[in-house]
Amino acid sequence: MNVYTSLIHHPVTNKNGDVVTTSITNFDLHDLARTCTTYGVNQCFIVTPNPAQKEMMHFIKKHWSEGYGSQYNPDRRQAFECMEVADSIEDTCLTIQKIHGTHPVLVATSARKAKKAIKFEVLRDRLKEDSKPHLLLFGTGWGLAQRVLDKVDFALEPIDAGTGYNHLPVRAAVAVVLDRLLSV
Ligand code: SAM
Predict the structure, then answer these.
(1) Which of 80, 105, 119, 168 has the most Cβ atoms closer than 10 angstroms to its Cβ?
(2) What is the pLDDT of residue 84?
(3) What number of other Cβ atoms are within 10 A of residue 69's Cβ?
(4) How many whole angstroms separate alpha carbon 42 and alpha carbon 67?
(5) Ligand 1 in contact with 123 (CB < 6 A)?
(6) What count of Cα atoms within 13 Å lies in the side-chain half-sphere of residue 4?
């Protein structure tokens, strides 16, 4: 299985539907690092074109991989090994393509139903049978921009517990999605 995750800070929408760049949140990085490592994700890309934000991500990663944090908490050092930063979704795809020799299959996630829907069990089987890399895209702000949804190969069905409310924090969404797709 070759599963990659990405947290998209651009292009995402804000409350008014404008396409914006959101800020990196420290605890997203820590929670995604631990969750992605637990489920054996190849790499988790934090996607932002903003130089200061990328610098901050490098600083945090270095602290936990090489700095004082790596001695203080070796488990966190291990978790941060899978964390990468990328300028864009296109750059992320190029990095994955260099590793596998093929463009990743792009899978969007959203709390809303979208076109090109794929069910959890179908994607789970596909991941077992297909060694092609798959990149799961998670949104920030008000979610992935429409131009991202237009480009993906699949949109994973929303997590829905039937309560009428399903707007999960992205950290919880990543954990639920990975557990449904990759748990043994
Ligand atoms: N600042 C917010 C937070 O608390 O994390 C970011 C919200 S962002 C729109 C949440 C992202 O988590 C979505 O873009 C999607 O990737 C994922 N997500 C949230 N709820 C989901 C659901 N019910 N099913 C699938 N993915 C979901």
Answers:
(1) 80
(2) 96
(3) 17
(4) 23
(5) no
(6) 29
**Six token digits for residue 122:** 């179908």
Q: Give the DSSP H/E element, type plus range, for residue 137.
A: strand 134-138
In sequence order, which ranges of 66-145 are alpha helices (DSSP H)?
68-72, 74-80, 89-100, 120-129
Ligand 1 lined by 109 (C-beta under 6 Å): yes
66 CA from centroid of ligand 1 (Å): 31
Q: What 3-state class would DSSP assign to 38?
A: helix
Within 4-143, residue ranges assigned H as helices are 26-38, 51-65, 68-72, 74-80, 89-100, 120-129
Question: In the prediction, which pLDDT does 18 show?
Answer: 98
Q: For residue 138, give the nearest of 39, 4, 40 by alpha carbon.
A: 4
